[in-house]
Specification:
mainly beta; four-stranded mixed β-sheet
């Protein structure tokens, strides 16, 4: 979600899924070596290794310029995601609704 229609602003990325059991510290990290857009890596620590999975949901805000699509990369898949834009005058209401969910 991009906050700031046609102006510099913030990109809110939220991902959810299933990770191996005993995975902690899941975070979203911008890949500084990616050329041609914006790539976000989903990273975490797993151990000890065991069977089964646990669900996770994580959100992070990145400052910068607008990209119409971003690449989100995790350990089991990579997806190209379209970015939805929210005009800056609607940003506060959007963020409040996002936090309430």
């Amino acid at each position: 979600m991009w906050l700031g229609l046609r102006v510099p602003g913030a990109l809110i990325v939220e991902v959810e899924g299933n990770a191996p059991r005993y995975t902690t510290g899941i975070q979203l990290v911008r890949d500084p070596r990616f050329v041609g857009g914006l790539k976000i890596d989903v990273m975490g620590w797993t151990g000890p290794l065991s069977s089964g999975t646990q669900s996770y949901k994580v959100r992070h805000t990145f400052q910068g310029v607008f990209h119409p699509t971003i690449v989100v990369h995790g350990s089991n898949k990579t997806e190209v995601v379209e970015v939805k834009q929210i005009p800056h005058e609607e940003a506060d209401a959007f963020l409040q609704a996002l936090d309430a969910a």
